[in-house]
Amino acid sequence: MRRGEVWWVQFDERRLVVLLSGDETSGFEVMQVVAPAGVDISGLGVEVPLGAGEGLPFEGVLRLALPRPGFTPCTWVTTVSRDDLIERAAVLSSEKLSEIDEALRLGDLG
């Protein structure tokens, strides 16, 4: 299990997450793949598209809110244990990881 892998986990239902960091002892920081916003979120957030090109069964995004005063952003980042990881779905390219790193930086998470 390493950064950039996409795994199925069981939350309230089976969902895809991207491993961002961590290890088996302390847990893995992950970001959930969610449906695209479907509207322009410029100035509010950024979305990194993921889908068939990465070997995923559906089109989704990693969505990060942009920080601003008086606003608590929701970025879909959480920590899971090794036991939460059900099955590896894909491994992201270095180019896609660079896009994610830039989005994390913009969201003050990287």
TrEMBL record:
InterPro entries of this UniProt entry? PemK-like, Plasmid_toxin/cell-grow_inhib
Keyword set includes Ion transport: no
UniProt keyword terms in alphabetical order:
Toxin-antitoxin system
Q: Which domain of life is it from?
A: Bacteria
Give the GO molecular function terms.
DNA binding
Family per record:
Belongs to the PemK/MazF family.
**What name appears for this protein in its UniProt entry?**
MazF family transcriptional regulator
Query: In which organism is this protein found?
Result: Streptomyces venezuelae (strain ATCC 10712 / CBS 650.69 / DSM 40230 / JCM 4526 / NBRC 13096 / PD 04745)
